[in-house]
Design a protein that fits this description.
Layout: E1 2-11, E2 17-26, E3 41-49
Antiparallel strand pairs: 1-2, 2-3
Length: 51
């Protein structure tokens, strides 16, 4: 599963918007006979300036 969230965090000195973007990657839970459900999660954070 992949989710992307973007939101404005402020403006630079010239008044252009600055955005933060988070990409969340998550796998489906796995379960084995001897271990409880396990899953992994990866988050990528980006700062984006628009000019």
């Amino acid at each position: 599963m992949k989710r992307i969230t973007s939101y404005q965090v402020g403006v630079d000195v010239l008044g252009f918007p600055v955005y933060a973007q988070h990409e969340i990657h998550q796998d489906k839970p796995t379960e084995t006979k001897f271990e409880p459900k396990k899953r992994w999660l990866k988050v990528i954070q980006s700062i984006i300036k628009q000019h």
